[in-house]
Amino acid sequence: MLLDNFYTILSSEQPDETSGTVLLELNPDHAIYQGHFPAHPVVPGVCLLQLIKESVENIRHQKMQYTQISSCKFLSAINPTDTPRISLTWSVKETEDHNLQLQAEGIAKDEPFIKLKAVLTPQL
User: Fold this and answer.
1) How many Å apart are CA 88 and CA 92, to the nearest integer?
2) How far apart are CA 25 and CA 52, in angstroms?
3) Whole-model pTM over 0.90
4) Which residues, listed in sequence order, are joined to residue 115 by a DSSP beta bridge?
5) What are phi and psi of 52, to 5 degrees?
6) What pLDDT tens digit does each residue of the chain (124 aa) get?
7) Euclidean distance between the first and final Cα of the chain, in Å?
8) How far is CA 62 from its chain centroid?
C-alpha cells in the first residue's frame, strides 16, 4: 500500500460504491524517485495503477487485484515536484462472477495523464 508514504488523500467524493473521485498529493521526496529518475523524477506507471486500485479499495472497503488490463494509456508523465496534486476518477460495474469492470482516468493540471480499462477481482 502506498497511502501515507507515497501519497496523501486530500479529498474524496463517492456518490455511491460504483464511482469516486480522489484528489491526491504526491510525496516528491519518496525514495522511489532516487531511481526513477534522480534528476527528473517521474511517477512510475505501476504506481499509478496501484493508486487507482487503492482508491477503489478505499471506497469499496475490500482488497482487490487486477486480473485483466484491457486498455491502459499513459498520456503524459507526472513529475511529482512540478505536479504534486493529481485527481483520479473511476467507475465500476459488477459482473455476474462478482468481478469489477473498472474505467478510470487521472487528471493533472486539467489534462488527462492516464486512461484505464481493467478488471478487478475481490480478494478473500
Assistant:
1) 13
2) 14
3) yes
4) 73, 105
5) -65, -45
6) 776 799 999 999 999 889 999 999 999 999 999 998 988 999 999 999 999 999 999 888 999 999 999 999 999 999 999 999 999 999 999 999 999 999 999 999 999 999 999 999 999 7
7) 17
8) 16
